[in-house]
Amino acid sequence: MGIAESIAAYRPANVGSLCATCKALESLSPKDREALTTAMENPNMPGTALTRILNDEGFSIGVSAFARHRRGECVGRRGSQ
Predict the structure, then answer these.
(1) CA–CA gap between residue 66 and residue 46 (Å, rounded)
(2) Cβ proximity of 79 and 22 under 8 Å
(3) Per-residue model confidence as pLDDT tens digits over 12-64
(4) How many CB atoms lie within 10 A of CB 63?
(5) Where are the alpha helices (DSSP H) in 3-46?
(6) ∠21-71-47 over CA atoms, to 5°?
(7) Using CA atoms, how far apart are residues 3 and 40, in angstroms rounded to an integer?
(8) What does the CA dihedral 33, 34, 37, 39 come to, rounded to 10 degrees?
(9) Which of 22, 39, 43, 61 satisfies CB 3.0 to 4.6 Å to 76 for a cystine?
(10) Are 51 and 62 in contact (CB under 8 A)?
């Protein structure tokens, strides 16, 4: 199969499912959701720090997945725009 055929045949896994960050945001209290949303909008707040805080609170979120969410590239964020 050539590149064009492979690209045409590609189907991403878990299409339509929310990312771990979306799921975490849904489960947070309004106060915590607002704090996290505000922190994610702050370009001076490192994603690694936010990911560590979330993981310390019991969530399982990878740094790369968190960064995708923050950039608006996850399914949940794309669907809300």
Answers:
(1) 11
(2) no
(3) 665 667 899 999 999 999 999 999 999 999 999 999 999 999 999 999 999 99
(4) 14
(5) 3-9, 20-27, 30-41
(6) 60
(7) 37
(8) -110
(9) 22
(10) yes
Classify 47 as helix, strand or coil: helix
* The residue count for the chain: 81
> Could you identify the residue written with the tokens 């490192």?
46
Tokens, residue 39? 């922190």
**What are the C-alpha distances in Å from 31 to residues 24, 25, 28, 68, 75?**
13, 11, 8, 23, 24
Enter the pTM of the model: 0.73
State the burial class of residue 81 (Cβ atoms within 10 Å of its Cβ: 0-12, 13-18, 19+): exposed
